[in-house]
Amino acid sequence: MCANRFENLSEWQKARELTREIYLLTGKEDFAKEWALSNQMRRAAISIQSNIVEGFESVGNKKYIQFLGIAKASAAELR
To answer: What is the pTM of this model?
Structure first.
């Protein structure tokens, strides 16, 4: 890891942008009747971002890799 802050990680920056896009998409009228779907999509997007941070702030590469795996699973859920 070269970054000294999670905000500098390109992965976190991309996850943040993805979350923003998901909120914009699910905020449209097309999703008005699909509250559960839009809520799940938002939570999955947030989970990606959150797990990158939690892994970055954890002690040791093993934990970091574990949290990246969880972030990857959330990305698959969102997909």
So the answer is: 0.89
